[in-house]
Design a protein that fits this description.
It is built from ten helices and six strands, in the order H-E-H-H-E-H-H-E-H-H-E-H-E-E-H-H. It is α+β, with helices and mostly antiparallel strands. The chain has a four-stranded antiparallel beta sheet, with no helix packed on it. Strands 1-4 form a two-stranded parallel ribbon. It starts with a helix and ends in a 5-residue tail after the last helix.
C-alpha cells in the first residue's frame, strides 16, 4: 500500500511540474529546501546548540545520589575482657592520681578490688540500608568552565554562519543552472528563426531555379546551409533538455519533469550601481569573515583552557548520609543521618614548570597561526572580490556591445535581403549576412548568460547574495 501511495504522489508531483514556468527566485527556494549539503550543515547547527547547552550545565552544581541495601545471615561473636582492660587502665593512671592527691592509697586499693565482668558481644549485619547525596559545586577551576562554554557558543555561531555560506554557494549553483536553461532556450529560438529564414530563402530560390531565373547551384548552396542549421537545431534542443534535467536535479524535482523558465533575466540595468567604484572592499558581510574570526576566537579561548590546568582549583562539596541496620547484642547501632560540608583546594606546584608552560606556549603559537591565517584569507578575499567586480564590469560592457552588434547584424541582414531581391547582391553575401546575424544573436545570449552569473558571483564575494 505504501508503495502505491508513493508512486501516486510521485506521479502527481511530476504532473504538477509538467509545463511549469519557474522564476529564478522559485528555483533558489526549491534548491535551498532540497539541498543535502545544506541539510547537513543545518544538522551541525543543532549539534553545536546542544554542545553549548551541555557546557553551560557545568556552571550549576551536580548532585549524585547513592543508595543500597544489603542483607547478611552471618554474625560475629566476641568477648571483651572488661576486668583486664580496667586493670591495665588503672595501673597506667594510678601514679598520676596519687601524685595529684585525687585518690589515696587505700582508696586506690579498694577500687582495684572491684570485679568487672567480661562483656559478651554479638554483632550482626542483617538488613543494612544506606543512602547518600553529594552536592559538588566548582567555585574556581582556573576559568576552564567559562572558556569551554565560550568556545561552544563560538562553535554554534560559526555553524550558523556556515549555513549562510552554504546557502550562497547553493544559490550561485542554482543561478548557473537556471541561466543555462535560459541560454539554451534562447539558442533554440535563434536556431529555429535562422532555419525559418533559410526555409523561406530555399522556397524562393527553388521557384527562381524552376523559372530559369537562378542557377541550380544557388539552390544547392542554400540546401547545404539549411542542412547545417537543422543539425544545429537538434543540438540546441538536446542541450536545452540536458540543462533542464540539470536544473531539476538541483531543485529536487524529477529529472524528466517538463519545466521551462522565464527568460527576462538578461537585463543589465541597475547592475552597475552595485559595483564598488574604487576604495577598499567591505568584507564584513561575507560569511567567511565571521568564520575566520570564530577560528581566531577559538584559538584564544584554547589558550585560556590550557592555562587553567595549572591554576588553583576550588570545589565546594556538601552531602547527607543515612545508615540503618547492623545489630549489636540485639540492638541497632545506626538509624540516623548526618550532613557534611567541605571545600577542596588543589594547587599545582611543579606541573607548570615541567610541562604546563610548554603546553601554554603551544596554544599561544596556534592562536598566532590562526591570526595570520585570518589576515592572509582577508587579503585573498579582497583580491577575489576585486576580480569578481572586474568580471562583472566586463560582462556588462560585453552585453551592451553584443546587443549593438546584434542590432547592426539584423539591419545588415535586412539590407542584404533587399539588395539580393533587387539583384545587386549575390546569394553568398546574403547567406553570410544571415550567418552573421545568427552568430551575433548567439554572442548576445552568451554575454547575457555570463553577465547574470558574474553578478551572482560578485554579490557572493561581497556577502550580499540572499
Amino acid at each position: 500500500m505504501r508503495k502505491i501511495i508513493t508512486v501516486l504522489l510521485t506521479a502527481l508531483s511530476s504532473a504538477a511540474m509538467t509545463g511549469q514556468t519557474l522564476t529564478v527566485e522559485q528555483c533558489r527556494q526549491k534548491a535551498l529546501e532540497h539541498n543535502k549539503k545544506l541539510e547537513k550543515v543545518q544538522c551541525k547547527v543543532e549539534q553545536t546548540h546542544a554542545d553549548a547547552a551541555y557546557y553551560k550545565a557545568n556552571f550549576f552544581p551536580k548532585i549524585d545520589v547513592l543508595a543500597g541495601d544489603m542483607y547478611s545471615w552471618g554474625k560475629t561473636e566476641m568477648t571483651l575482657p572488661m576486668g583486664e582492660m580496667a586493670g591495665n587502665m588503672l595501673s597506667q593512671i594510678a601514679p598520676t592520681l596519687l601524685q595529684s592527691g585525687m585518690m589515696s592509697q587505700e582508696a586506690l586499693g579498694a577500687f582495684s578490688q572491684i570485679q568487672i565482668p567480661d562483656q559478651e558481644m554479638d554483632f550482626k549485619l542483617k538488613n543494612t540500608f544506606f543512602a547518600s547525596a553529594v552536592l559538588t559545586q566548582p567555585l574556581y577551576v582556573g576559568g576552564k568552565i567559562t572558556a569551554a562554554y565560550k568556545m561552544s557558543r563560538i562553535g554554534e555561531r560559526m555553524a550558523r554562519t556556515n549555513v549562510r555560506l552554504t546557502e550562497s554557494e547553493v544559490i550561485v549553483e542554482t543561478d548557473e543552472a537556471y541561466m543555462l536553461v535560459v541560454k539554451t532556450q534562447r539558442l533554440v529560438k535563434v536556431a529555429n528563426s535562422y532555419k525559418a529564414l533559410l526555409d523561406e530563402l530555399q522556397s524562393n530560390v527553388d521557384a527562381a531555379v524552376k523559372h530559369g531565373v537562378r542557377m541550380s547551384n544557388d539552390a544547392l548552396k542554400v540546401q547545404v546551409k539549411r542542412n547545417e542549421v537543422e543539425l544545429n537545431v537538434v543540438k540546441a534542443e538536446n542541450a536545452c533538455s540536458l540543462a533542464k534535467m540539470n536544473l531539476c536535479q538541483i531543485i529536487g524535482e524529477a529529472l524528466n519533469s517538463d519545466i521551462s523558465v522565464e527568460e527576462n533575466n538578461g537585463s543589465v540595468s541597475g547592475l552597475s550601481t552595485l559595483i564598488n567604484t574604487g576604495g577598499n572592499v567591505d568584507l564584513s558581510e561575507r560569511p567567511e569573515t565571521d568564520l575566520l574570526k570564530g577560528k581566531t576566537e577559538l584559538a584564544a579561548a584554547n589558550v585560556r583552557i590550557a592555562a587553567s590546568d595549572y591554576l588553583p582549583q576550588v570545589v565546594l562539596m556538601g552531602g547527607y548520609g543515612y545508615l540503618n541496620g547492623m545489630e549489636l547484642n540485639g540492638q541497632k547501632l545506626f538509624d540516623n543521618g548526618s550532613p557534611s560540608v567541605g571545600v577542596t583546594v588543589k594547587i599545582p606546584v611543579l606541573e607548570y614548570f615541567t610541562q604546563g608552560r610548554h603546553k601554554i606556549n603551544s596554544a599561544k603559537a596556534a592562536c598566532r597561526m590562526a591570526e595570520l591565517e585570518r589576515e592572509d584569507s582577508n587579503e585573498r578575499m579582497m583580491l577575489e572580490s576585486k576580480q569578481c567586480e572586474n568580471n562583472l564590469s566586463e560582462a556588462i560592457l560585453e552585453v551592451q556591445l553584443t546587443a549593438k552588434s546584434s542590432e547592426h547584424a539584423r539591419r545588415n541582414m535586412e539590407m542584404s535581403k533587399k539588395q539580393y531581391e533587387q539583384g545587386v547582391e549575390t546569394l553568398s553575401d546574403y547567406l553570410d549576412a544571415q550567418a552573421m546575424w545568427q552568430q551575433a544573436e548567439c554572442d548576445r545570449i552568451e554575454a547575457e548568460y555570463k553577465c547574470f552569473i558574474a553578478n551572482s558571483k560578485y554579490l557572493k564575494s561581497v556577502g550580499k547574495l540572499r
